[in-house]
User: What shape does this take?
Amino acid sequence: MTRRRVLWLVAAILAGAALLAWVPDRPLDELRARWAPPPSTFLSVDGMSVHVRDEGPRDDAEPIVLLHGTAASLHTWDGWTQVLARRRRVVRLDLPGFGLTGPFPDDDYTMAHYVRFLTRVLDTLGVRRFVLVGNSFGGNVAWHMALAEPGRVARLVLVDSGGYAHASTKTPIGFRIAQIPFLSRLVEHILPRRAVESSVRDAYADPARVTPALVDRYYELTLRAGNRHALVQRFRQVPAGVDADRIRAVSVPTLVLWGRDDRIVPVEYAGRFHEDITGSRLVILDGLGHVPQEEDPRRSVEPVEQFLGSS
Assistant: This one.
């Protein structure tokens, strides 16, 4: 068989597989009905309807702001919010490109844009000074925000945070495809549920904790119109390690919290954050993976309560 025929055969197989896995966007009203019951609200910010949950005492001088990671949503913080909102005001949101908020209208997924957007959301909510918590990509946004607005970020908590160029031992398959130029367009139109399940299981130290309901949430919210395109653009515009040399400039009190069995951003990078951020605290959680706030909310929130209680 000639090389040209082999290429045509491979292309035909890929095209057939793509057609079988082709999944249309889910209607936004349908997604909102399932994933945005009270206390969810929607804020109008920069041409977007931003999905927000704002809970706990309204007189908190320094509310806690929670930022999720890539392909996740504000729901990843459900367990922590149940604990923290008893005594603190807790604000969480779907970042642009994820969850129900949907894509940036201008297709700009740079860190500077995320920082400007977050500033606008918090201004709209009347939150001037706050504790900022971020997991994975949300951690990346969080420490950039701490650099841009050190007077507003009272404390910083980085949970298995992005920031350095790193070698994963288990990169979710959808993330890998989204970073391959000639395949990334497929990500905008296909989404095998099995691939989503595999990716979520990779994020957990104990895959047995991944339930069908959890996979449903990740799967359905990724199907919000524009989110699959945004995923590709986010990887393209914010390559791993961008601005890593600036992490040493973070000056706010910081807790670095990490799952020891994180296979997406390995635990060695917790040590790098701890070393680079002067005066930071480091807590490693045995038996947990990349999303400890989801995998074991009770155990993973305890170091945060201790950190905040020490002020």
Q: What stands out?
A: The chain has one domain: 3-309.
